[in-house]
Design a protein that fits this description.
Elements (H helix, E strand, L loop, with lengths): L1 H26 L15 E6 L5 H17 L2 E6 L4 H13 L4 E4 L8 H9 L4 E4 L13 E4 L2 H15 L7 E7 L5 H14 L5 E8 L4 H14 L5 E4 L2 H13 L9 E6 L2 H8 L5 E4 L5 H12 L7 E3 L4 E3 L3 H4 L6
Parallel strand pairs: 1-2, 1-3, 3-4, 4-5, 5-11, 6-7, 6-8, 8-9, 9-10
Antiparallel strand pairs: 10-12
Length: 331
C-alpha cells in the first residue's frame, strides 16, 4: 500500500509539472508579435527620408503605430533628406541582421551597391512611397506607394479642363520637389504630358522648393519678381504650395483667384486653404502606408511571393469638395 501511495503521488506531481509547462510556454510570447520563418519576432529596419513636410510626419507616424500594432520590432532612422544618411542606415541594418529593410529613397539613383549588400546578406528590401532607378529589380522585393506620374497627370488634366474655354496664354510656374527624387521627376513628367497637346499652356519658370514650406515661399517670391504674368502655380506638394500662398498674399495678389493654385498630397492644412479659396485643387497622395507595409514585411520575412508593385488608392479634390472632405483628413 505504501509503495502504491508513493507511485500515485509521483504521478500526480509529474502531471502537475506537465500542466505548468504547457500553460507557461505560450505566455512567454505575446500573441500579437509577428514571427519570422524561424519563429522569432520580426525586426524591420526603416530608413525614412526625413521630416520635411506634414505628409512625411504622417507617414512616419503611420509606420511607427502600425509596427507596434503588428508586434514588429522597428528600428527607425531619419535621413534628414540626405542620401548618404540613408545608405549608412541601411548598412547599419545589415550589420544588425534585421529581418527586413524598408526605406523611402531620398533620390532615385545611386542605390545598387548598398541594395546588393542587403541582397547578399539575405535581407529582403521593400521600397515605400518612392521608387529607385535600377536595371536590377531583383535588388528589392516590392514597391509600395503612389503612381506619381498619374498624380502629375491628374493635376494637368484638371488644369486643361478648367481653362478649356479660355484662349490663353496660360502662364504656369512650377515648384518642384527635391531634385532627383521620384515624386519630383514623375509629377513633373505627368503634368507636362497632360498639358502638352494645348499650346496655350506655358511653364514659364520651374525650380525646386525641396518639398518644404519655407523654400516654397522663398522660390515663389523669386517667381513673382522675375515673371510679369503668372496665371497658375503648380506645386509638387502641399507644404510648398502653402509657403507660396504666403508669398502671393504678401505681394498683394489673391491666391486661388489672381493665381490659381494646384497642389499634390492632401494634408489637412491644404484642405483648410481650399475652404478659404486659396487652393483650387489638391491631388491626393496617401501617406498612411503603415498597415500595408507591416503585412508585406511579414510576407517577405516568411519567404512568400508578393506583387512587384502595390499602389495606394487616391483621389482628386477640387475646391467644391474640400469642406465635405476636411473632417476626414487625419494628417
Amino acid at each position: 500500500m505504501a509503495r502504491r501511495a508513493v507511485l500515485v503521488l509521483t504521478a500526480a506531481l509529474l502531471a502537475s509539472s506537465a500542466t505548468a509547462c504547457s500553460t507557461s510556454s505560450p505566455a512567454s510570447s505575446s500573441p500579437s508579435e509577428a514571427k519570422a520563418g524561424s519563429g522569432k519576432t520580426i525586426t524591420l529596419g526603416f530608413a525614412q527620408v526625413g521630416a520635411e513636410s506634414g505628409w512625411r510626419t504622417a507617414n512616419t507616424k503611420s509606420v511607427q503605430e502600425a509596427a507596434k500594432k503588428a508586434g514588429i520590432t522597428l528600428k527607425f532612422s531619419d535621413a534628414q533628406q540626405k542620401q548618404e544618411n540613408q545608405i549608412k542606415a541601411i548598412r547599419n541594418f545589415i550589420q544588425q541582421k534585421v529581418d527586413v529593410i524598408a526605406f523611402s529613397p531620398v533620390v532615385e539613383s545611386g542605390w545598387d551597391t548598398v541594395l546588393k549588400e542587403a541582397k547578399d546578406a539575405g535581407i529582403p528590401v521593400i521600397l515605400t512611397d518612392r521608387a529607385v532607378d535600377t536595371k536590377d529589380t531583383s535588388l528589392y522585393k516590392t514597391f509600395l506607394g503612389s503612381d506619381f506620374v498619374k498624380e502629375g497627370k491628374s493635376a494637368g488634366e484638371w488644369l486643361t479642363a478648367a481653362y478649356a474655354n479660355e484662349q490663353g496664354p496660360v502662364n504656369i510656374v512650377e515648384l518642384q520637389g527635391t531634385t532627383g527624387s521620384a515624386p519630383a521627376n514623375d509629377r513633373k513628367a505627368g503634368f507636362a504630358d497632360a498639358i502638352r497637346a494645348d499650346g496655350k499652356f506655358k511653364i514659364v519658370a520651374s525650380q525646386t522648393g525641396d518639398f518644404t514650406r519655407a523654400k516654397g515661399k522663398e522660390v515663389m517670391q523669386a517667381f513673382l519678381k522675375s515673371q510679369k504674368d503668372i496665371d497658375v502655380l503648380y506645386a509638387h506638394n502641399d507644404d510648398m504650395a502653402l509657403g507660396a500662398i504666403q508669398a502671393i498674399e504678401e505681394s498683394g495678389k489673391k491666391p486661388g483667384t489672381d493665381i490659381k493654385v494646384i497642389s499634390v498630397d492632401g494634408i489637412k492644412d491644404a484642405f483648410v486653404a481650399m475652404t478659404e479659396g486659396k487652393i483650387n485643387v489638391v491631388v491626393e497622395c496617401n501617406p498612411m502606408l503603415g498597415d500595408q507595409l507591416m503585412e508585406l514585411a511579414k510576407k517577405v520575412a516568411a519567404g512568400e511571393d508578393v506583387p512587384p508593385r502595390i499602389e495606394t488608392q487616391e483621389g482628386v479634390f477640387p475646391q467644391d469638395k474640400a469642406a465635405a472632405a476636411l473632417p476626414s483628413r487625419n494628417y
